Amino acid sequence: MIALRLPSLRLNHLLTAGALVVAAAAIWPWLVSPIPAVRPAAAPQASAPAPALEPLPPLATYGASVERPLFTPSRRAPAGVTTIGPTIESRYRLVGIFANGAKKKAYVAEGERRIEIAEGDTLDGWRVKEIGRDRIRLSSADGEASLKLIRVLTPEPPKAQ
Question: Exposure pattern of 49-88 as b/e (b: 16+ CB <10 Å)?
Fold first, then answer.
């Protein structure tokens, strides 16, 4: 039987192989075609006017969506949801509280209209349950709500010198 003997690897063989790998890596960018660059899209021309949007229908037209919610398995409205419209907190804001001993009054604003109420009075079907230092609590058949006092800081008048 004839045995083949392979030459032993020497350090100069390893250095030659390393030099070939480095040379291949150095000339690789010139051998491969470049990747096309992505260019940003041109900005739309300012001369084209934006299309006019039609106004949305009133919120009350979506009553069926509230009565039979799409993502509720029973398709029944959760308890407490009865009407569509602004909540008492979004409609009114508390602008002032007046207290003189046991007598308390609150001043509520709806737009430019100002309303004076006391404990026990009603405001759009909501009964004033309590007037506190910085809020009033209201109750109705729909539940309870509270209006917090809005504090508006006014600058001090200039001091006379």
Answer: eeeeeeeeeeeeeeeeeeeeeeeeeeeeeeeeeeeeeeeb
Residues near 85 by beta carbon (within 8 Å), at least 6 away in sequence: 59, 60
Shared domain for 99 and 67, answered yes or no, is: no
- Helices marked H in 7-73 — which ranges? 11-31, 63-67
This prediction's pTM? 0.43
Going through the chain in order, the beta strands assigned E by DSSP cover 93-100, 103-110, 113-118, 122-123, 126-131, 135-140, 143-148
**Mind listing the pLDDT tens digit for each residue in 24-78?**
999 888 887 777 777 776 665 666 677 777 887 776 677 777 677 777 788 776 6
The terminus-to-terminus CA distance of the chain in angstroms comes to 121
How many domains, in total, are found in the chain? 2
Last residue of some domain: 85, 107, 134? Answer: 85
Instruction: Count CB-CB contacts under 10 A for residue 5.
Output: 5
